[in-house]
């Protein structure tokens, strides 16, 4: 049996970043850049107007007010997409619209709300915009700047940056294909709802949970169904998984029961178990090996154990394969609103609701913490980390809490 941190490090050492390839920008969402992207142009390319109004020389409008207006001759109008043809001289203005290049001679844009048109002239009734409302060429990016660095996840904003510098294709790391294998004669899919409702079978909830978790991690789930409790069935599904995926995740079958065939199937396929038990709860019967060169993570069968182990071990592995640099969910220190008791022999990961009070974080358990109580995970937004050397922690003390869900950012190191 090994410690949790060692298990994390062994799994990460056993997976590799997927090779890079060029894809169209429209297909790059949620992928990870494989190389720095430098801007081939200044962004913006031209000094331009930040709003609709009049391009002027600041010296011509300083001191302007409703009772002391400035009257300027309008020499041309420049909508967005057009370029000015005349420089603005003393006593002159150019009608301009948001995004249009600023004409030579002008150094600011008076918003139209502070003006009144007067034939071929404009009356400026305020000077709050003197020398303002201008976006300078290159103020976002200069030609040759690294627009986005290798390892950057590509969300909506990042795709916008790449489009703004005309990157029709980008080099990104591959998207991991994650095979999902359930096992057990007692497990049934939802097409056997009658047997499940009658209590003769147990729904394969882990398969659906893992499918959602893999999708949420921006990988591709490869659901392979349920292996039955025979060596041949388990071996066949694992062999297929190795042929069709970059990472294999199975549930159940790695314990010590006489009907747990996964380890025997792995051995029959020439795999050597790296480890198969971790000093933690829930999730102790966790295994790691390689099947035909493809990493395999064997998760426990209990639903909560499956989800906890996915967050601690599988998600970081997926993120490494994607080329991400920040592999681990962020953790905070949370003050307990109630006492917490464990057996003190293992590191415990308790399901909790963590709240940001503005003066720090607080935590309260979601209820009973059994590894089969899936609702404890459904209600949680964090995992409280209870060290193995503590078993009776009073309310008011603090523990690390790993933040789950969309609110939890990622970090490049374990901090619990």
Tell me about this structure.
- With 416 residues, this protein is of the alpha/beta class.
- It folds into four domains: 162 residues, MoaB/Mog-like domain (Molybdenum Cofactor Biosythetic Enzyme, Chain A, 3-Layer(aba) Sandwich); 53 residues, Molybdopterin biosynthesis moea protein, domain 2, CATH 3.90.105.10; 88 residues, Molybdopterin biosynthesis moeA protein, domain 3, CATH 2.170.190; 83 residues, Beta-clip (Beta Barrel), CATH 2.40.340.
- The chain is 20% helix and 30% strand.
- It contains nine helices and 29 strands.
- A six-stranded mixed beta sheet has the order 7-4-6-5-9-8.
- α5 runs parallel beside α8.
- The longest helix is centred in the last third of the chain and has 19 residues.
- The two termini are 20 Å apart.
Summarize the structure.
The protein has 416 residues and is of the alpha/beta class.
If helices are DSSP runs of H or I spanning 4 or more residues, what is the number of helices? 9
Radius of gyration: 30 Å
For the termini, the CA-CA separation is 20 Å
Number of domains: 4
Helical/strand content category: alpha/beta
Q: What is the highest CATH level, the class of the largest domain? A: Alpha Beta
CATH topology of the largest domain: Molybdenum Cofactor Biosythetic Enzyme, Chain A
What fraction of residues sit in β-strands? 25-35%
Query: What would you give as the CATH superfamily of the largest domain?
Result: MoaB/Mog-like domain
- Tell me, what's the shape? elongated
CATH architecture of the largest domain: 3-Layer(aba) Sandwich
Helix content, binned percent? 10-25%
The total count of strands amounts to 29
Strand order of the largest sheet: 7-4-6-5-9-8
Largest sheet: 6 strands, mixed
The parts where pLDDT drops under 50 for at least 5 residues are none
Mean pLDDT: 95
């Amino acid at each position: 049996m090994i410690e949790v941190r060692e298990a994390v490090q062994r799994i990460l050492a056993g997976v590799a970043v997927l090779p890079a390839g060029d894809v169209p920008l429209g297909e790059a969402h949620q992928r990870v850049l494989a190389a720095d992207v430098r801007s081939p142009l200044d962004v913006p390319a031209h000094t331009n107007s930040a709003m609709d109004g009049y391009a002027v020389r600041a010296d011509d409008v300083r001191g302007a007010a409703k009772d002391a207006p400035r009257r300027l001759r309008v020499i041309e109008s420049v909508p967005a997409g057009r370029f000015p043809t005349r420089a603005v001289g003393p006593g002159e203005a150019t009608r301009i619209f948001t995004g249009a290049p600023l004409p030579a001679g002008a150094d600011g844009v008076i918003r139209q709300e502070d003006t009144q048109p007067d034939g071929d002239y404009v009356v400026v009734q305020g000077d709050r915009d003197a020398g303002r409302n201008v976006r300078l060429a290159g103020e976002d990016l200069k030609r040759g700047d690294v627009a986005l660095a290798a390892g950057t996840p590509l969300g909506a904003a990042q795709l916008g940056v790449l489009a703004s510098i005309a990157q029709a294709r980008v080099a990104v790391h591959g998207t991991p294909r994650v095979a999902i294998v359930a096992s057990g004669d007692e497990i049934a899919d939802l097409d056997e709802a009658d047997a499940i409702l009658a209590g003769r079978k147990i729904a394969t909830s882990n398969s659906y949970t893992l499918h959602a978790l893999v999708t949420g991690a921006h990988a591709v789930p490869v659901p392979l169904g349920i292996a039955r409790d025979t060596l041949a069935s388990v071996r066949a599904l694992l062999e297929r998984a190795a042929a069709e995926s970059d990472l294999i995740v199975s549930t159940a079958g790695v314990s010590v029961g006489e009907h747990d065939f996964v380890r025997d199937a792995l051995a029959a396929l020439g795999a050597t178990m790296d480890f198969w038990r971790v000093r933690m709860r829930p999730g102790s019967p966790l295994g790691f090996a390689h099947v035909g060169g493809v990493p395999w993570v064997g998760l426990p069968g209990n639903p909560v154990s499956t989800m906890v182990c996915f967050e601690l071990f599988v998600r970081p592995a997926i993120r490494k394969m994607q080329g991400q640099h920040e592999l681990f969910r962020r953790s905070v220190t949370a003050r307990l609103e109630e006492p917490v008791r464990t057996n003190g022999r293992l590191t415990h990961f308790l399901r909790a609701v963590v709240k940001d009070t503005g003066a720090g974080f607080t935590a309260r358990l979601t209820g009973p913490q059994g590894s089969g109580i899936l609702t404890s995970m459904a209600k949680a937004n964090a995992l409280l980390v209870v060290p193995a050397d503590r078993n009776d922690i009073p309310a008011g003390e603090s523990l690390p809490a790993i933040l789950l869900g969309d609110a939890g950012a990622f970090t490049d190191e374990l901090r619990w």
